[in-house]
Design goal:
By secondary structure, the chain is mainly beta. It has 1 helix and 21 strands. Helix content is about 0%, strand content about 45%. Strands 17, 18, 19, 20 and 21 form a 5-stranded antiparallel β-sheet that branches. Belongs to the glycosyl hydrolase 32 family.
Length: about 325
């Protein structure tokens, strides 16, 4: 578990270099008092571990840029991949002061050692494309969702893919949450593509997406809480949390309307990773306690498995 006495911890992403896991996480000072204020005070913290349980905090990886910049208010959730030459690429979400932090864009920083990061000098590498995605002011939704980049190599060797928390420009406003998609040949120049999922699945957004092959089947994970459900999904009584749905390939097709909850609202932004023994485990941040108070710390790893029906489940540790 990772709990910082002076800061809340929430969304996170991981990179593995040899036997060392590198954890990058959003952090903001508890001195803010109200945890709802944390989003616009977020930096990217960094900790290392060899077992996914005991973490050693090191220097922060990223902080908001100097003004004016697309990421001068906050640096939010991302992911990390290593290029064929051995250089690490960290993709992250930036929010800037020009639009009062209401427009999200994808930024890039690179590193040779996972500790010292240099921002890409050209500014953001990707933003929402109005051909398929909702832009700020085109609906009653309060912001332009284009965040949480999850980057992975094309299984066939044809470049790279990025999944993004996005919203379609079509359909009822509370049902427009989709998994956005972009492609790149070099990890620097990105081109938006149509979304990988359709609107109308009952979610206002599908946050912190991840795709992995578990027990031979591609699985999409995402997170959504009840207050971001479409009205009809709220009627089911579900509280939200981490969700999963199996697909045919890492690029789908995926049907979020058929997704099942892996956790309740006490855990959020789940990521799955192989532990040192090779088994799949999930980590998530502790969202709320029994009294619905924000917690803001990282869980211990929790074993997961895929059932014969294709549902990702937490299982008792063995």
């Amino acid at each position: 578990m990772l709990r910082l006495p002076d800061a809340w911890v929430w969304d996170f992403w991981l990179a593995q270099d040899g036997d060392t896991y590198h954890l990058y996480f959003l952090r903001a000072s508890r001195a803010l008092g109200d945890p709802d204020r944390r989003h616009f005070r977020a930096s990217v913290g960094h900790a290392v571990s060899t077992d996914l349980t005991h973490w050693t905090q090191v220097a922060d990886a990223l902080v908001p840029a100097d003004r004016p910049a697309f990421d001068d208010v906050a640096t939010w959730t991302g992911s990390i991949v290593r290029d064929p030459g051995g250089r690490w690429h960290q993709f992250y979400t930036g929010a800037g002061s020009t639009e009062n932090a209401l427009v999200q864009r994808i930024g890039l920083a690179t590193s040779d050692d996972l500790y010292a990061w240099q921002r890409h000098p050209g500014g953001p590498v990707l933003e929402a494309d109005a051909r398929w995605y909702e832009k700020l002011g085109t609906s009653t939704w309060p912001d332009e969702a284009w965040r949480d980049p999850w980057v992975f190599a094309d299984p066939g060797g044809d470049g790279w893919h990025m999944l993004v928390t996005a919203r379609s420009n079509q359909g009822p406003v509370d049902e427009r949450g989709v998994i956005g998609h972009a492609r790149s040949a070099d990890l620097v120049t990105w081109h938006a593509q149509p979304p990988l999922t359709a609107p109308g699945a009952g979610f206002g957004h599908l946050e912190v997406a991840q795709v992995e092959v578990v027990d031979g089947r591609p699985v999409l994970l995402f997170s959504c809480l009840r207050h971001e459900f479409a009205a009809r999904r709220k009627e089911t009584g579900a509280t939200g949390g981490v969700w999963a749905v199996a697909g045919e390939t890492l690029l789908g097709p995926f049907d979020p309307s058929a997704a099942h909850p892996v956790t309740d609202s006490s855990l959020y932004s789940g990521r799955i990773v192989r532990d040192p023994s090779g088994r799949w485990v999930m980590l998530a941040f502790r969202n709320v306690d029994a009294g619905k108070r924000f917690v803001g710390e990282l869980s211990d790893p929790m074993p997961v498995e895929l059932t014969p029906a294709g549902q990702l489940k937490l299982v008792a540790d063995r």
